[in-house]
Design brief:
single chain, mainly alpha, ADP-ribosylglycohydrolase fold, 62% helix, binds magnesium ion
């Protein structure tokens, strides 16, 4: 779970095209902070631990809605999209057809919690559908969770790439150098997931993956959360990077991360 959170923290100071698209930068500075990607990742993870491994659709969706509202209201200024914060503040929130990249940035815990790829995709879909029920929003969540499941269960980068292309239709033929010149801050799944996958596919370690994110730019904290979550499943996050990131996290967030780490052991 640190994979997503640390990608968010490191990417935060380069969001909105503030970086200069280089792999050579300091991972953590006084300007780094966690954002909505961390808060919602924690919210979904807590909900799914509460719901249990065999929960049905209604139980999962109810738990995810309650938890995202709770955490969103605890941290209302973490940088949500306008429509999502409205959703958080509504009593009985309804899905709003979103294809924003929020469905993919919050889903990473799903990749760790279930025993099969089919179940992983099913629960990922449910976590998206409560708000991001546009087909592209759902695809974003399912593809990220599937990649994490595959990475942690021993699939190679080539196998993950082939599965994602075939099942979700994302074009993963572009290299980071193809993407980089014209890529800007954009918040939809269609222009976030393929780029996040490519950051992972062209990396050799967790840190290298996060550096790839800043190399192409875009919605860097969300890209960092997504690509970082997949890279963590492949390589784990180095302890010294985790140690630095801990300074940025309030205790309520750290508590959920700690419980989750124990839960998936
Ligand atoms: Mg963010």
């Amino acid at each position: 779970m640190y994979g997503a959170i640390i990608g968010d923290i490191i990417g935060s100071r380069f969001e909105f095209d503030r970086g200069n698209k280089t792999k050579d930068f300091k991972l953590f500075t006084s300007e780094s902070d966690f954002t909505d990607d961390t808060v919602m990742t924690v919210a979904v993870a807590e909900a799914l631990m509460d719901a249990g491994p065999d929960a049905d659709e209604k139980t999962v969706k109810g738990a995810v809605i309650r938890s995202m509202k709770k955490w969103g209201q605890k941290y209302p200024y973490a940088g949500y999209g306008a429509r999502f914060i409205n959703w958080v503040l509504t009593d009985d929130p309804e899905p709003y057809g979103s294809y924003g990249n929020g469905s993919g940035m919050r889903v990473s815990s799903v990749g760790w919690l279930y025993g099969s790829l089919e179940r992983t995709r099913e629960v990922a879909r449910w976590t998206a559908e409560v708000s991001h029920n546009h087909p592209e929003g759902i695809k974003g969540a399912e593809s990220v969770a599937a990649a994490i499941f595959m990475a942690r269960t021993g699939s190679s980068k080539d196998e993950i790439k082939a599965y994602i292309e075939e099942e979700f239709g994302y074009d993963l033929s572009r290299t980071l150098d193809d993407i980089r010149p014209n890529y800007q801050h954009v918040e939809d799944c269609m222009h976030t997931m393929p780029e996040a996958f490519e950051c992972f596919l062209e990396s050799e370690s967790y840190e290298d993956c996060i550096r790839n994110v800043m190399y192409i730019g875009g919605d860097t904290d969300t890209l960092g959360a997504i690509a970082g979550a997949i890279a963590e499943a492949k390589w784990a996050v180095p302890e010294e990077i985790i140690a630095q990131a801990k300074d940025y996290l309030p205790s309520d967030i750290s508590d959920v991360v700690g419980s989750f780490t124990q839960y998936v052991k």
